[in-house]
Amino acid sequence: MTTHHSTFSSLAALLVGLLAAGCDSQRSTTESAAPVSSSVNNSTASPTAVSYQKDLSRGDYTFAVQTVGTGSQRQLSWRAARLGRELAAMTDNIEGTVLDATVTNLNNDEYPELLVFVADAGSGSYGRLMGYEFLSRGRRSLTLPELDGPLAEGYLGHDSFRVEGRRIIRTFPIYRPDDPNSTPSGGTRTVVYEMPKKEGLITVAEYRDGS
Known about the structure:
The protein is an alpha+beta fold. The chain folds into 2 domains: 2-33; 50-210, Periplasmic lysozyme inhibitor of I-type lysozyme (Lipocalin, Beta Barrel). 17% of the residues lie in helices and 45% in strands. It is built from 2 helices and 11 strands. The protein has helices spanning 2-32, 38-41, and strands at 50-58, 61-68, 73-82, 85-104, 113-120, 127-134, 139-142, 160-164, 167-173, 188-194, 203-210. The protein has a 7-stranded antiparallel β-sheet, with no helix packed on it. Strands 8-9-10-11 form a 4-stranded antiparallel β-sheet, with no helix packed on it. It is globular and about 55 Å long.
């Protein structure tokens, strides 16, 4: 009787041990599992659309500019490299669309500038510049000076930009006080910008109004 009782006790202890080991093994596997990314796990998610893309080069420098998104809020990314070696990269959120991107050398030195022209979201589509000059050490941001005085009279946005030589040419319609947004009647204004080598800033060189 003692032998049977001892055997039964041993079997019971063995069974409990096996069950405990199975639970510990399952618990260990669960805790060590890597979390699953929600973006990978969501099979219904669609890739974000590329709304603007342009590759540029000047001398030893290459640039890539891209925006993703199709609404008023988009993500702007650019990358700069020299002789295949990355110099800088940046990603920023913008409200609006990229009109154009170009690489130039406004101050005629050895360092290029990347100019990205943006039209802000909204009925006016106000234009602005997101620019960068790439120096031997780092970079500096470039912007257009605010329109003021006679330059700002009748201005309600709808800018267009182009680069001619070492000048930025900005053109926009002139609105009279009673003009609806869709029908400006005051002609056009052209503002010419330069970047003198000593100053390192973009300044107004001249402007003119036309019919």
